[in-house]
Structures are given as C-alpha cells and as structure tokens.
Amino acid sequence: MSSTPSSPAILSAYATLTSLLHPTAPLEIEILPSSISTTILHAGNSIGIPKRLLTACFPHARSTFLAHKDDDDDDHNNQNDDRQEAATTTTTPALDATLVLQLLNPEHLSAANFRKRRLLLRRRNSGGEDDDDETAVFATREMVWIESLVTSPLYRHAKSPTLWAHRLWVLKTFLHSSSSGNGDGRGGAAAGLLARELGVVMRAGERHPGNYHAWNYAREVLPLVAVLGSARAEGGMKAVVEKVHGWCLAHPRDISGWSFLAFLLRGQTVDGHVARHVYCETEAFVERLRWQGSSVEWFLASEAQIRDSRTSLMAQSRPIDPP
Predict the structure, then answer these.
(1) What are the C-alpha distances in Å from 62 to residues 58, 183, 184?
(2) Which of 107, 116, 157, 215 can pair with 260 through a Cys bridge, CB separation 3.0 to 4.6 Å?
(3) What angle do CA 95, 97, 102 make, to 5 degrees?
(4) What is the pTM of this model?
(5) Which conformational region is residue 210 in: left (phi greater than 0), alpha (psi within -120 to 50 degrees), or beta?
(6) What angle do CA 246, 251, 257 make, to 5 degrees?
(7) Residue 96 main-chain phi, psi, to 5 deg
(8) Mind giving me the DSSP string for 247-295?
(9) HSE-up of 158 (CA within 13 Å, CB side)?
(10) What is the secondary structure of 301-320 as a DSSP string?
(11) Rounded Cα gap, residues 128 and 57, in angstroms
(12) Angle formed by the axes of helices 133-151 and 161-170, nearest 10°
C-alpha cells in the first residue's frame, strides 16, 4: 500500500528533528501544545516539539522505517564491503525513523528490536568483542537515548516497560562487560554503574510517581553489580541505601520507592546497623512531621516485623546454660 508523499515542510521538520535526536548527553524532550509554538524549539540539551508537528512526522517515519528496516540484512547477506560500512555508519534512514517512532510511541517493539539488531551488527563486524571501543561508544549512545526518553517530561515514556526492558538488554549485552575487570577497578566501575543507573531510575520516578517499571529495573541491575568486591567493603551498599532512603523521604507517598528500599535492606550485603539506622531515621521523620501515609506506615510495619523475627531467631540460637 503506497503512502501519501510528505510535504516539503514535513520533510524539513523531520530532518531537523532527527538531527537533534542523536545525543551524546541526556536530552530533556517535551511535547508542546501547538498553541505555544509551531516550530521545534532547541536550547542546549532541551528540545520542545509541537505535538501537531510530531504527529505529522510520524507517518513519514513509519514509511521510511518499513522501506529501509531490512537494508542491513541485505548488506550482511550480499555485500561484505557494504556490510562493513553499515557497521561503522552512525545512522541510517531506518535508525533515524526509530527516533521519531519511539518518541511518539514508547511501546513500538519493532523500533526497539531494530535498534537491538543494529548494535549486534556493529559488534559482529568489530570481531564480536564487547569491549571494542566503537561498540562501547554506540552502546553508550543507546543508553543516553533511552535515558533521554525515560527522564523527560513525556506522558508515557518514564513508565514504559518496553524502554526499560530495552535499557536492561543493552546493559547486560554490552556495558556490563566493561565493569567486569579485576580488583579495585572492577569494584569502582560497578559501583559507578549502580550509582548512575539509580540516578536514572530516581529521575524517572519523579516524572511518574509509583513507577514500578523503573524500580523493578533497579532490582534487575543489582545482580549485575554483585561483583562490587572492595567497593562493598568500603561501604558501597551503605551509600546506595542512604541515597535511596533520601529519595524516599523526599517522596514519602511513593510506595514503589519504599518497596525498593525494603528490598535493599533485606539483602545479604546490607549490614544490620544500616537497616536499624534507616528504620530509626524514618520513624523520627514520621514523628517530626506528624506524617500520615500508608506508604511509610507499610515500610515501618514491615521492617518492624523483620526486626522482630531476627530477634526471635537470635534468641532461639543462643546456647542454653546447663543447670
């Protein structure tokens, strides 16, 4: 089925938009009412896109994607030289189209899967090495793009299960290997990875309260940094708990954050003194502000239950003095 040719104005807007959506640093993207502006606004890392203009670009992006999504496969099967060139090309018509598709529809699975295939193609043509500099650069750019989507003031993106699953796939497939060195360097890289990903989750949690998809992503990231090693001995997990606890106190109604904090405190890598400190600080927060909210009440009740069960187990494990 043939599509109606796009007007020159739409083609120009599409070219401008796709040129701006290849960030090396996270963007803040906002879809604006058409009454505010009829053109794309851009200042630094902030981009404002009129909704009417974005929806007008979407059909062109879709037709471009459908027309070019198999180009890489054709290059791979037929022309070795072209395949090598495709692997080092920063962008393609289909890749540009996925930017607009994901911006308007974060659950566009075909766009997400195409971007996965592009990353795998680049790795295959670089010799299959995850730590290849060029592959790592493209994977890092992919993470920056997803971060831009899930942390921007967009309606559905912060809570998109497709985007969070895509980010986890990129992390597991490419970037986690860069944190798997040896010794202290490995621990420092893993600790930095966890801190960075938690920062993204927290910003997404502010965009969409009760963001279970974001906090569940954080749960999935934790096993990837279980190789903290020396960083853990230096209090790495304590710093993580304090950071999450601070976020929860700043957003006391957000049950998803408190649930993740409880998940952290029940982990084997968190010292009991840290858990008691968090409990006491939260209890003091409630008393000081006379806070009433089911989220905090649930956290305190669940932690009190855990503390009581631990105390009971310790009492049962004590040796009985002979008569």
Answers:
(1) 6, 48, 47
(2) 215
(3) 100
(4) 0.86
(5) left
(6) 75
(7) -60, -40
(8) HHHHSTT-HHHHHHHHHHHTSTTS-HHHHHHHHHHHHHHHHHHT---HH
(9) 22
(10) HHHHHHHHHHHHHHHHHSPP
(11) 36
(12) 160
Q: Token pair for residue 65?
A: 């994607």
H or E segment and range at residue 52: helix 51-68
Alpha-carbon distance of 88 to 126, in angstroms, equals 9
pLDDT at residue 113 is higher than 70: yes
Measured distance CA(20)–CA(99) in Å, rounded: 10
Contact 233/183 with Cβ under 8 angstroms? Answer: no
The 10s digit of each residue's pLDDT in 246-256 is: 999 999 999 99
Lookup: tokens for 252: 């006391």
- How far does CA 154 lie from the centroid of its chain? 15
User: Which residue has tokens 């957000």?
Assistant: 254
- Mean confidence (pLDDT) of the chain: 83
Distance of CA 232 to the CA centre of its chain: 23
Residue 27: name the closest of 213, 165, 157, 118 by CA. 157
- Residue 31, classed as helix, strand or coil, is strand
The β-bridge partners of 48 are 30, 41
Dihedral, CA of residue 264, residue 268, residue 273 and residue 275, to nearest 10: 20
The structure tokens listed for 143 are: 């993470």
